[in-house]
Amino acid sequence: MALHINIDDLLNGKAVENNCLDYKKGWNPDAIYRTICAFANDFEDTGGGYIIVGVEEENGRAVRPVKGVNSQMIEQIEKEMVGFNNLIQPYYQPRLFIEEVDGKTILIIKVTAGERRPYKVPDQVTAKQKTFNYYIRYNSSCIVPRNEYEEELRALANRVPYDDRGNAAIMIEDISTAILRDHLVAVKSSLANEDMSGDRLWSILDQMDLTEQTPDGRFIRNVAAMMFSEHPEKFFKYTQVEIVIFPEGREQNPNNIIELPIIKGPVPRMIRDTMNALKINVIRKNIRKQKFDEHSLTTFNYPYQALEEAVVNSLYHRDYQEREPVEITIEPNKISILSFSGPNHTISIDAIREGKLLRSRRYRNRRLGEFLKELALTEGRSTGIPTIQDELARNGSPAATIETDEARTYFIIDIPCHPDFKDDILTLNGENGVKDGVKELTERQRNILNVIRENGGISVAEMAQKTTIPTRTIQRELAELQKTGVLTRVGSKKEGYWLVML
């Protein structure tokens, strides 16, 4: 069984946050099972964690080369784990992976948030007389919760975030093997080399913990459709990004409005396409020479990283049961990003008004966050707003402001334009946008654009197969659509994708 993430990225803390990693020098079942219990209880809504056996830790980092475990002990450890798993109340079974690192064998025990929490385990699973206790993670330690912590843990019983629930409406055919494989390649997982045909796809999803087994059958979890379906909007209505531009300002002239094409698709693609739309149409750079300094000063109307963090946050923390899109409004003096619902009530209203660190005890889409972390689209817990403010300050821009209501039904972040770029009327980056005077599209061009909207990474050969238009004709039409700005190519010829600008 192969890990769905790269083992080196896991050890380096790149794919998973450090508080979700626990290193063990050797096989110590008493300590290991207390940690398994704590990760399964998932008190902080991190989604569980990984226990790495055969690796020493120093200052929160894995010591390389790894120490390893005796490979002749593996079979005995697997047998012992079967018995120890039965001691967890209610029953819980973690996943065991055997990996080769630095020429040594190590064990990876993956513990996902349990669906039947809270869990108890003996303080010492190897002792004859067993005393059972709940365990939770507190910073990097496993502790027995007391008083209000125990009450809060009990309150989590049967609470499963929406993205981690099975969904009977999602069929195996709704999962795109192309999108899934691209993701596994991006995170350098050996699962990318696995056969995904037929029932093998179910096996891959099982290994990634994207299925849920119930008395009524086996279901695919919601996060699988959010990440790996071409059309997640089938299951989560209005899962889309709408970009609206008011060149003179929303209040100054609400009738002067430009609506960009609605952005749909799996969450990483929506993030990518949204950022490309902003980059192509809005983001501008200014390079100014300074007196008495040989270095030039570079500023942006909106720093890319600040916008990316805001866009990622809007889709990461969005309530996928709400029938509302993410709305991005662009005005001469600011970009506003609106998402539903708002921050949960563990974040104080004062912290929201300050617009600094929004530290939450409960995360709405913990599994979605795991996948975005693996793709380096989010850095980790509670870092989004500080990153936005830091990038704005570094650019010389005013700080972003945040708005919500007492009921926390929505979340708006306003990102101000750098003062050097402010104009009464917003001018788009016309050299990259759709050019004036574009002739009406032909039926052939519309057919080509329709298949591209369904899959931006489609090849010319696949377009020809879907539209029955000869490949040479498609190539000519693509060139014409690019020339007029209706279509743009993002990335390389081999690994890039098409973006429709209408």
Care to describe what's here?
By secondary structure, the chain is of the alpha+beta class. It has 15 helices and 23 strands. The strands form 8 sheets. Strands 15-14-18-19-21-20 form a 6-stranded mixed β-sheet. Strands 1-2-6-5 form a 4-stranded mixed β-sheet. Strands 11-13-12 form a 3-stranded antiparallel β-sheet. It is globular, with a radius of gyration of 25 Å.
Keywords:
single chain, 502 residues, alpha+beta, four-stranded mixed beta sheet, 15 helices
Topology diagram in text:
Layout: H1 7-11, E1 21-24, H2 29-41, E2 48-53, E3 57-58, E4 61-62, H3 74-85, E5 95-101, E6 104-112, E7 120-122, E8 132-134, E9 136-138, E10 141-143, H4 148-155, E11 166-167, H5 177-186, H6 200-207, E12 211-214, E13 217-221, H7 222-228, E14 241-245, E15 258-259, H8 267-281, E16 285-290, E17 293-300, H9 304-316, E18 326-331, E19 334-339, H10 349-354, H11 366-374, H12 384-395, E20 401-403, E21 411-416, H13 443-454, H14 460-467, H15 471-483, E22 487-490, E23 497-500
Parallel strand pairs: 1-2, 14-18
Antiparallel strand pairs: 2-6, 3-4, 5-6, 7-8, 9-10, 11-13, 12-13, 14-15, 16-17, 18-19, 19-21, 20-21, 22-23
